[in-house]
Amino acid sequence: MDISRRLFIRNGVATVTLGLAAPDFLTAIAGAQGMASRRLVVIYLGGGNDSLNTLVSYQDPSYYSRRPSIAVPAGQVLQVGTDAAGHALGLHPRMGGLQNIFNEGRLALVQRAGYQNSSRSHFEATDIYGTANPQTSSGSGWLGRYLDTLPRPLDALTAWNTSGETPRALLSGTTGVPAIPNATTYTYASPNRGPAATQERAAAQAMASNLAAGRPHLSFVNSTSRGAIETLDRVAQATSYAPSVAYPNNGFGLALRTVAGAIVLGVGSRVFWVQTGGYDTHSQQGAAGGAYGNLMGTLSDGVAAFYTDTRNQGVANDTTVIVYSEFGRRISENGSGGTDHGAAGLMMVLGGMVRGGLYGTAATLAPGHPSLENNSGDIRFETDFRSVYARVLDQWLGVNSVPILGGDFRAGAPAFF
Amino acid sequence: MPRLNPEIDHLFRRAGFGVSAAEATSFGDMSPAAAVDHLVNYEGRPDDVDARIGRPDHAQVKSRDLFAPDIDIEDARQRWLFRMIHSRRPLQEKMAMFWHNHFATAYSKLIADSGPVQAAKMFAHKPGVLRGPQGQLELFRAYALGNYRDLLLEISQDPAMVIWLDGKTNTRAKPQENFGREIMELFTVGVGHYTESDVYAAARVFTGWNLRKSTGYTREDMNAYQEFVYNADQHDINAKTFSFPIYGNGTQTIPARSESAGMQDGIDLITALALHPETARRLARKFWNFFVSEIHAPDPAFVESTANVYLQSGTEIRPVVRHILASPWFNDPAMRFARYSWPAEYVARSIKEVGWQGFSLDQARTPLANMGMLLFEPPNVGGWPMAANWFSTGTMLARSNFAATLVTSQKESLAVALETNGGSAQLLLTTMLDRVTPAPLDSAPQQALMSYLLAGGAWSGSAEQLSTRAAGLARLLVSSAEYQLV
User: Is the interface score ipTM higher than 0.85?
Assistant: First the structure.
């Protein structure tokens, strides 16, 4: 579709959907645009999320005895029901936005996701979630390998990384992913004006197009430069986005707003990477409030704004979000009012087509219980994290997960699609 | 002004931050061996760089109010950049940057603990300026080529590090694993050479390693401070057993000690870790990537020889770095431009080469953050993601736009410096390549540059044409992929 037609439709739909129900024919046009590709938004919580305080097993007495100063009081959790093993569960009190999505049946909570012999190192564990291979923390990532399966030539904005660094999950043999930490500064400056500036940009593009035979490292840097210059104009387009809701004014909220803009304005990206940090809560993490409460508020408020916005704009059914961290944290709090590195954790999947609910079972936190490991210090995994990836790849992105994940992990996958 | 010979250029890019026009004149006739001596034996020259801040013929600094680099993080960042550009001891600043990444500690966590004044002071306090211990950066400068075991002991008691890795809450009743893990995973032996139970034992070793506040401490008082203290009554006095030898006789157990003698536990573990052969190899591999190449995997013979120098010298770093800079690996022409510059290296080198007349280092702060390297704010304790990871479309655009900012500020001075070389577009290009030094350009990018110079019409050499095209040319060179390699 050419740009002018897309802009026409975008303006037409956006004008109407602000506040009013869109006429059916316009919604249909908007929907038809989205049919071309479904979008996946990956949210990575950097540092190792303390999942036990995200989704609280609030009737487990050991939860309270092992976390005397950081347990969320049972009376304050946001109840989401009981899992298959009979554990009553509630979301952290700052996650009202996510509870609403859960109540609409569009948030899947996958408990105890992980893998055997979980790494307690941030770097290794992050890389393992990236490679989707617990045996290796180097090489390409699962999303990068997905991108490698797409037909060539690949549009430079097929994937969009909102953080400044390229995470291992997006690393690929043949596909470079633009990193656009701030879309508003994603422009090309010049010491000159007018034709000299235009000619300078053209020269930069020509230089970056040099193949640099025999110098692959130089080719690589050239590819990032070329990718930047070639995507400038379309990224600028996304910054003009007028969302239907107010996003929280923090880096995470603004990143999600940009993602929504790129989706609604039809930039064409299929995979978005968003990350937010601060989850390495070794000390003073708080219980219902405090530092961890702020993390939960940031997460829930941002995701809820995004979900509502995409729904208002008619693209929620084309958008799936998955949320994960590199590991969970230790069950017992440490002497600093925090928690050290642990094992299995919570993964979340949400979107207009997601079958929401509680998947898997919570651990029983009494020492000696088989749902624990490491001398009952940590949570033992129940759902292989790769089975969540497999379900997303097979059922959402419509590709064969087996070659991408290097094995068949469909068995036991939570059925959120 | 002719370039230096390629060996010397290579040496100053790797063991320094490149060479300014003035330095190129004074280093012109130096032999490679003399240049290594010059860089490594820097104590012969005064550490006078800070005294030159504010001089009009140097890069400028700009502060919201009074320039206070000991207690204001933005000013501290500018002072460090100033040192990288203007120090007579470039290897000292280069190694300080290496250690800052190796012992990566972030300002943001320190603010949460102690507020902005104390947090900045814990990084940047120059000894003697105010009361209290020196900042972490000054420690790295003091030990730039010092003894690694001693540096490890110092950093374990460094207030910024103690807060960063939660040492303040490491108590007998509740050992805190953060520092105990990272000292093995990141500072010494590396993953695969310690066990989870070593982590728990190390946490107990460092119980009681804490901080105390100065009398009348307030966060806002620039003369207030926190300093290291060993809290004997918080120390776990039981024996601690490791999976590797702690003592020269092969003993793997640190004996039970009285509370008052218990600080020796940590000293014993630090000494053992510093002397561990895997630490020697891990440092050798990091030095390979830092000094020799990120394109070529570390040569095992390099790793072994460098590790041997380290161990035989009693963990001294100066002989290690001298060994590397004089080694055949470092001096192999294939290793030139085989590293990806760190953003701070890129910024310092481009300023040295393009010029700094009237340029305020304050203008580099936001670009550096966008390039992914805010000084004193590494993303986590593992340091910055290295090598190709510095590069993405976003960070490359940030580099490119910094080049535009820098060159815009130097437009006039470039035109003046080049006015006698504006006779033809080719002469302008050749002259510029003597000043701004990317990795060798293939013919296609050279052609693109020539086309750019002539895109506004035939070359007349008018002042207007020279000023416009020299600026555009400098920007294109500094933002080229070739220039990102060092």
Answer: yes
List CB contacts (< 8 A) between A170 and chain B.
none
Residues of A in contact with B396 (CB under 8 A): 221, 224-225, 227-228
- What pLDDT is attached to residue A185? 79
Residue A13 has pLDDT above 90, yes or no: no
Alpha helices in A67-175 (DSSP H): 96-103, 122-131, 142-148
What is the per-residue pLDDT for A19?
28
Q: Express each pLDDT in B384-420 by its tens digit.
A: 989 988 988 888 999 999 999 999 999 999 999 988 8
- Going from the C-alpha of B196 to that of each of A161, A331, B182, the distances in angstroms are 34, 16, 12
Contact A123 B479 (CB under 8 A): no
Q: Contacts of residue A221 in chain B, CB cutoff 8 Å? A: 340, 391, 396, 481, 484-485
CA distance A272 to chain B (A): 15
Predicted confidence (pLDDT) per residue in B95-154, tens digit: 999 999 999 999 988 988 899 999 999 999 999 999 999 999 999 999 999 999 999 999
Question: Taking a C-beta distance cutoff of 8 angstroms, is the pair A354, A108 a contact?
Answer: yes
Indicate the range of A159-163, A169-173, A260-264, B197-201 predicted with least confidence.
A169-173
- CB-based contact B483:B432 (threshold 8 Å): no
Is it the case that residue A28 has pLDDT exceeding 60? no
| Chain B positions in Cβ-Cβ contact with residue A206 (cut-off 8 Å) | 444-445, 448, 451
DSSP 8-state secondary structure symbol assigned to residue B321: H
Nearest CA in chain B to A182: B394
CA nearest B387 in A: which residue?
A217
A88-91 and A55-57: which strand pairing?
antiparallel
Which DSSP letter does residue B361 get?
Answer: G
**Among chain B residues, CA nearest to A333:** B174
What is the distance in angstroms between the CA of the first residue and the CA of the last residue of chain B? 21
Give the residue carrying structure tokens 């097929």: A158
Helix (H) or strand (E) holding A347: strand A345-351
